[in-house]
Amino acid sequence: MASEPEVRAGLRRAGQEHLLRFWAELAPGRRAALLAQLAQLEPDALGAHCERAAAACARPPGPPPGLGARLQPLPPERLGSARRAHPDARRRWEEEGFRQIAQNKVAVLLLAGGQGTRLGVAYPKGMYRVGLPSHKTLYQLQAERIRRVEQLAGQRHGTRCTVPWYIMTSEFTLDPTAKFFEEHDFFQLDPANVVLFEQRMVPAVTFEGKAILEQKHKVAMAPDGNGGLYRAMADHQILEDLERRGVEFVHVYCVDNILAQLADPIFIGFCVWRGADCGAKVVEKADPEEPVGVVCQLDGVPQVVEYSELSPETARLRGADGSLVYGAGNICSHFFTRAFLQTVTREFEPLLRPHVAVKKVPYVDEEGNLVKPLEPNGIKMEKFVFDVFQFAKNFVAFEVCREEEFSPLKNAEGAGRDDPATARRALLAQHYRWALQAGAHFLDAHGAPLPELPSLPPDGDPPATCEISPLVSYSGEGLEVYLQGRELQSPFVLDKDQARVLRPQDT
Fold this sequence. Notes:
This protein is an alpha/beta fold. Among the domains are: 78-204 and 220-285 and 328-354 and 383-403, Spore Coat Polysaccharide Biosynthesis Protein SpsA, Chain A; 420-506, Seminal Fluid Protein  PDC-109 (Domain B) (Ribbon). Helix content is 31%, strand content 20%. Strands 2-20-12-15-11-3-4-5 form an eight-stranded mixed beta sheet, with helices on both faces. The protein has a three-stranded antiparallel beta sheet with strand order 1-13-14. Strand 24 and strand 25 (500-502) form a beta hairpin. Helix 1 runs parallel beside helix 3, helix 5 (87-102) packs across helix 6 (138-157) and helix 5 crosses helix 10. 43% of the residues are buried.
């Protein structure tokens, strides 16, 4: 390990010597820890990182000059739709997807490295409960969807199959996630098929270009964004593991979407049918100002353009049919072939440009006191998972129904948008619709029929509370045997673990 004088000299050259300002106060163990961290960061590389962060943050906000002239919507040949496709096409895609799953060629990969800061919790988002009658966490819902899609594929093709689950964590989420899965017996998945790995961390930087001390002996670090996936896969030999298992296709998704359909056979089948090496699910934007990135073309190649980079005029453009020209909202649900991921990690990852995220970063002040800022005070540099779209040889987008597939959990309770209440409402509304479609009827507490509203307002609660376990139904299939012609009282939970229907008094 480098000595303190050597590290200090390097930090002085890099303009980061302030990181040793508490050196005289540190015990031997903490001195060793700080030296080890600084040696790993490499002073020259640290200085360059801080300069890039400050320069990037200093750029004027808003759309880059001339961006509008470089944009185009995705051409029709790159776009498919679950909503508008002929039922025969949907069946063909679904059958292809199930065929690939049954042959053990499909894996899912969860992006779960971020902290729940905006959500207001100190643990990983996947451990969060949004207030469902069953009290299930996001992790449990996702595990059960994997079990159900394995079962459906196996039944169709008369075989047992496995969808491996890869979970990218960070320094903040690895240990609590691993412990959580162990405490819950991996939700009855084979632990050998649940692979946790850790993404890299990068230093947080002040607006003046100085690395931030989180403690007297520790530099503040942050995950390198969900685009850190590609370096993390290389670091932990994930691609080699995929190859060993015979996996050819990977469905990558984000932890906070309560409606995420893991290893969705229709999406997988569509991408395979089209010979795509890279694909993205999209939803129609709710309005021009909705804060989601737009899947489009920039200089003729597929990209996701962040909502903050679109001018208001461009965001509001509408076509002849009245729909938004740039309305293909990205929901962080992506298809990749293993071969494409190998090419990205081998050739293209170094070309990815980090993005600036301005955050509230706890730090120690000049007196060594811990400060938790009330306003953003630092820069975290992140790469985005979708920045590799530009390298695809055959990129496709696949439009899905927002009500069935997209309700992100980002904000604390009471925010009114993308919070636990909206996520809970979205899932329960989906299950209420499924129950009606299966022939169920709901009664109020006095036994009177409740109105049947198959179409609900976006911000309205369903007339009845109905939760259906993913172990019973992946996407609304097979419910008639349980629900057809039945009169149900709210709240109603249909649970398959014990092959039983839970009555209201059981919930």
